[in-house]
Specification:
With 360 residues, this protein is an alpha/beta fold. It contains 14 helices and eight strands. An eight-stranded parallel β-barrel has the order 1-2-3-4-5-6-7-8, surrounded by six helices. The radius of gyration is 24 Å and the shape is elongated.
């Protein structure tokens, strides 16, 4: 992407004393609700007030947003509180209406990012705009598709661009609503360090009590800001109730987060070290998750061996695995000694699991 440094200029020009904060309800529900939350947030670290006007739902019949009337409520937010406003757009009509109502920041949702046709339609409608436009990652972990959306918007002469990392959908049940796949965001940062990246812990976690931890990880990985869904009465919210926090809780989160600034050589060193350690923490969590999955498979093998009265230790199979993994490890720069120690420990844990099943 050309003019990569130009993309960061809009963020640098804001000269913020803290990471960018975008907050507000998942959905605009009523005028009173929108304005109450806005007034609760007006004297906080929030830079942009977000509210979903059109809500793409997975299945029909759920609340799909109040529509264009909600844009008038956002105009009132700006008039009464001075907060800049933000909302999601999914087609040309949304863009036209949002621009007509002077929304300051627009984002493209994960379901829209998956379609180059939709992204191109939005890019054409926004051509030459000076509004900030952020692109959420696509539903599936496809870095090329994500960057392709950025490139389409950049080709439409949109200068104030950035991305939102909201996690990726998976059929497998995990502790997250959308798995972070931090390595994709890290790779994007590595390739395009001047492209602002915002983290959306609300959609990653799906649970308000996990938002702080994911936010801290994002800041440790040098993300530029956070988008956190905020509601004055989260449990009564019309959409995504479980992942929204109260304004007071948002203020507490922002106070508790450790925010590192690069002001001199030592601070830059500490920042880079923290970033690398955060990457290791992410990978360590993935290792534990994968090992847990491996042991569940071992439990299944134990059940089969129990049914057929087969011995737990199968020497030929073990030797074949070990030889293969030593070669794989060497190709990744791992010593034979390390691979042997690691897989012996894994093998022993697998045997323990199988014996527990057989002896149950």
């Amino acid at each position: 992407m050309e003019n990569n440094k130009q993309m960061r200029k809009w963020l640098d020009d804001m000269n913020l004393p803290h990471p960018l904060v975008i907050a507000g309800p998942c959905s605009a529900e009523t005028e009173d609700q929108v304005l109450k939350i806005a007034h609760d947030l007006k004297d906080t670290d929030v830079n942009y007030y977000r509210a979903g006007i059109w809500k793409p739902r997975t299945r029909p019949g759920n609340f799909e947003g109040v529509g264009a009337i909600g844009l008038k409520w956002l105009q009132k937010v700006k008039e009464e509180t001075g907060l800049k406003t933000a909302t999601e757009v999914a087609n040309r009509n949304h863009v036209d209406l949002a621009l007509e109502h002077d929304v300051d920041l627009l984002w493209i949702g994960a379901r829209s990012t998956v379609s180059p046709f939709i992204v191109q339609e939005i890019a054409d409608a926004l051509e030459g705009t000076d509004k900030i436009v952020l692109i959420k990652n696509p539903v599936n972990p496809d870095l090329s598709l994500w960057l392709g959306a950025v490139e389409r918007l950049a080709s439409s002469n949109i200068k104030k661009l950035g991305v939102i990392h909201r996690g990726f959908s998976t059929y497998e049940k995990t502790k997250y609503r959308n798995i972070p796949e931090w390595q994709l965001a890290i790779e994007l940062q590595s390739k395009f360090p001047d492209l602002p990246i915002i983290n959306d812990p609300s959609h990653i976690t799906g649970k308000r009590d996990m938002i702080f931890d994911v936010s801290q990880t994002a800041l440790d990985l040098n993300f530029d800001g956070l988008m956190i869904e905020t509601h004055h009465d989260p449990d009564s919210a019309w959409s995504d109730a479980a992942q929204q926090v109260t304004p007071s809780r948002l203020v507490q989160i922002m106070q508790d987060l450790r925010i590192r600034k690069e002001t001199d050589a030592e601070a830059e060193y500490n920042s880079k070290l923290s970033n690398l350690r955060a990457q290791i923490d992410v990978i360590d969590n993935q290792l534990i998750d994968i090992l847990g999955k491996r042991m569940k498979v071992s439990d299944g093998i134990g059940e089969l061996k129990k049914q057929k009265n087969v011995a737990v230790l199968q020497t030929n199979r073990w030797n074949a695995i070990l030889g293969k993994m030593i070669l794989e490890g060497e190709s990744k720069g791992l010593s034979e000694e390390f691979v042997l120690r690691m897989f012996k420990a894994i093998h022993q844990e697998s045997i323990n699991h199988q014996e527990k099943v057989i002896n149950a």
